[in-house]
């Protein structure tokens, strides 16, 4: 019984870690995208 409860928990922990890493990468990519867009708009205006 103890074994059956630890395996799903470990899988959920790994899934949660993947989700957090993907979220951080997504935020990083979005930040770079917004910065590049602002720079492009700045060049376009000036």
Report on the architecture of this protein.
The chain has one helix at 2-45. By secondary structure, the chain is mostly helical. It has one domain. It is rod-shaped and about 65 Å long.
For the sheet with most strands, the description reads: none
Mean pLDDT: 88
What number of structural domains do the residues give? 1
Please provide the count of β strands.
Answer: 0
Quaternary structure: single chain
- Rg, Cα atoms, Å: 20 Å
Our count of helices gives 1
What key attributes describe this structure?
1 helix, 46 residues, mainly alpha, 96% helix, rod-shaped
In brief:
The protein is mostly helical. The chain has one helix at 2-45.
Layout: helices, strands, pairs:
Elements: H1 2-45
């Amino acid at each position: 019984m103890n074994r059956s409860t630890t395996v799903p928990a470990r899988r959920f922990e790994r899934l949660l870690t993947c989700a957090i890493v993907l979220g951080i990468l997504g935020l990083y990519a979005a930040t770079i995208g917004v910065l590049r867009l602002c720079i492009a708009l700045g060049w376009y205006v000036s």
